[in-house]
Amino acid sequence: MATYEQMALSFGAAASAYESGRPEYPVEAVAWMLQPAQSDGRVLRVADVGAGTGKLTRVIVATGAEVVAVEPDAGMLAVLQEAVPGVPTFVGTAESLPLPDAAVDAVVLGQAWHWVDVAAASREAGRVLRAGGVLGLVWNVRDETVPWVARMTAIMHGSNAETMLAAGGPSVGAPLGDLASREWRWSRRMTRAALTDMVHSRSYWITAAPADQERMDARLASLFDELGAVGDAEIELPYVTRAYRAVRP
Q1: Per the domain annotation, does 209 fall within a domain?
Q2: Among the residues of the chain, which ranges form H helices?
Q3: With contact defined as beta carbons under 8 Å apart, do 138 and 243 qualify?
Q4: pLDDT tens for residues 75-106?
Q5: How far is the first Cα of the chain from the last one, in angstroms, to the nearest whole number?
Q6: Sheet hosting strand 129-142, strand order edge to edge
Q7: Residue 164: helix, strand or coil by DSSP?
Q8: For residue 71, what are the β-bridge partners?
Q9: Is the pTM of this model over 0.90?
Q10: Nearest 10 degrees: CA dihedral of 152, 10, 113, 198?
């Protein structure tokens, strides 16, 4: 089985599947994360860390904020640069941000905080945030209270993020304040091809042995047939978006 580090750095090998299969984030969740950083009506400066292909980046750009994207994988950044042109991009990590002190109003991470060293990433977020700035953390999680979604997860295996959220959620360290949280329920219409890309964008599948990948794909194909996800037909995949924010005093 792949190591934690190998899984964390695996996504560039599936950047196109990630872009196709992963959902964007509800505008309401992003606005809620950024709300404490609003000040005097000026344009917010936001660092999207672990930005991937820009799923969160494009929603922040749509709010009118100035955004820089930081991502450890150059392959993911290449997709982001095409999807969200004009956003400055940097190779870097949450533990070592290529930004000056007090440079931004908000640091946000989508589907990423579960991969970080919490103490080191909290210190680094505190360094680059201005006083009163905010750290925002957000995850889109499939709603496994729906039986067929639970069956799909059993086939493709859960993720490190889902394990962390089920165990009580994320934590942050000094100099950040306490985490507040909210959640939103929604759904995304997806074709069989998009559902398959979603599975193929997950670290467990990317790092699995070819024979294990084939077994998962065969079982998923049977499930998708049963659900009527054939050809261009679409089905609703229900999600729960869980967002967290902590202010830097």
Answers
A1: no
A2: 4-8, 15-21, 27-34, 57-62, 74-83, 118-128, 147-156, 160-166, 192-200, 203-207, 210-227
A3: yes
A4: 889 999 999 999 999 999 999 999 999 999 99
A5: 41
A6: 89-91, 66-71, 45-49, 104-110, 129-142, 234-247, 180-191
A7: helix
A8: 91
A9: yes
A10: -30
Q: What is the domain range of residue 23?
A: 4-143+159-189+238-247
Q: From its phi and psi, is residue 86 left (phi > 0), alpha (psi between -120 and 50) or beta?
A: left
Domain count within the chain: 1
Q: What is the CATH number of the domain that holds 86?
A: 3.40.50.150
| pLDDT higher than threshold 60 for residue 1 | no
- Beta strands 234-247 and 180-191 are antiparallel
Q: Are 40 and 84 in contact (CB under 8 A)?
A: no
206's CB contacts (< 8 A; 6+ apart) are: 7, 10, 11, 13, 14, 200
Average confidence (pLDDT) over 193-203: 92
pLDDT digits (tens, 9 = 90+) for 55-64: 999 999 999 9
Tell me if 77 is assigned to some domain: yes
pLDDT value at 2 more than 60:
no
The amino acid at residue 75 is G
Alpha carbon distance 155, 151 (integer Å): 6
DSSP letter (8 states) at residue 14: G
Angle, in degrees to the nearest 10, between helices 192-200 and 210-227:
150
Let me know if residue 212 belongs to a domain.
no
Q: Measuring CA to CA, how many Å separate 111 from each of 40, 50, 136, 139, 171?
A: 30, 8, 11, 5, 14
Establish if 217 belongs to a structural domain.
Answer: no
